[in-house]
Design brief:
Number of helices: 10
Bound molecules: zinc ion
CATH class of the largest domain: Mainly Alpha
Number of strands: 8
Shape: elongated
Order of helices and strands: EEEEEHHHHEEHEHHHHH
CATH architecture of the largest domain: Up-down Bundle
Distance between the termini: 25 Å
């Protein structure tokens, strides 16, 4: 039975049996890893609140080699990111970021840069930067880190060099008008959004969080979410929540309830 140790972020969990929990971590040393946290749902569990979605900690586990699931021995909090959970907008964006990592990675596929990006994004969500921008800067980099960098210099179908009028964005990058009619699932993208996307991915992380990109920001957010949905094969669950949030903007009394439901939905979505 091998002992493993790594810094890791909780990216999902669901109850198992009477008192246990299956927890998914994204770890620095092993990539995505799932484990059983024994008695995690007991009142006086030794895990305390450490297994909440988004928490960064030091994971110690036993790998029995007999199952996909490891046995979680310890998870000591390094940074709980409590501020992210105090606000619905931050929480929704964190859920989207975590969903990207949980859905676009395979088990035990180590990716140190992606782990670093996840932690940087969670940290930024606690700061003063707009949460939507953090998600955008993260999403652009996450897609690239996982090898899905969209091509922006030419139509991916016919090779026609950009700029051309009425461009769309498909799975691999820009598509010209004629090819978009044939390709089907490409979405229209404005020249300013193409420009903003190009800038965002070339800027350093701190710059990408603050550099003004004007009205293209919302458009780019939607396009990025569509890109992620294409890659994972279904719409992101966290976006559905964010849309609801924008639509209802609940009164303060309802917010606690909405937040509880969200935490529950998000936690299980990430598993
Ligand atoms: Zn074309």
């Amino acid at each position: 039975m091998a002992l493993g140790k790594s810094a890791a972020v909780v990216i999902g969990s669901f109850p198992l049996g009477e008192s246990d929990r299956v927890v998914t971590f994204y770890s620095r040393e092993f990539g995505k890893i799932r484990g059983v946290a024994k008695s995690a749902r007991r009142l006086r569990s030794r895990f305390g609140s450490a297994l909440e979605l988004g928490t960064l900690g030091e994971l110690v586990f036993f790998d029995t080699g007999r199952s996909e699931l490891v046995r979680v021995d310890h998870f000591d909090i390094t940074r709980p990111f409590n501020r992210v959970r105090e606000d619905l907008e931050r929480l929704g964006r964190a859920a989207w970021i975590i969903e990207c990592v949980a859905r676009m990675t395979a088990d035990r596929d180590r990716h140190v840069a992606l782990f670093g990006l996840l932690v940087r994004a969670m940290r930024a969500l606690e700061g003063s930067v707009k949460p939507a921008r953090v998600a955008l800067a993260f999403g652009v980099r996450c897609i690239e880190a996982l090898g899905h960098r969209p091509r922006l210099d030419a139509c991916v179908e016919c090779g026609r060099a950009y700029p051309f009028p009425r461009a769309s964005l498909g799975a691999g990058g820009l598509v010209c008008e004629a090819c978009a009619r044939r390709a089907g699932d490409a979405l229209p993208i404005s020249p300013s959004a193409i420009d903003a996307l190009d800038r965002l991915r070339s800027l350093a992380w701190d710059e990408a969080l603050v550099r003004p990109i004007g009205r293209a920001e919302a458009e780019l957010g939607d396009l990025l979410d569509a890109q992620v949905s294409r890659l994972i094969g279904h719409p992101t669950r966290s976006t559905k929540f964010l849309r609801e949030l924008q639509r209802i903007s609940p009164a303060p009394a309802d917010r606690a309830e909405t937040k509880r439901e969200t935490m529950k939905g998000m936690t299980e979505a990430g598993s």
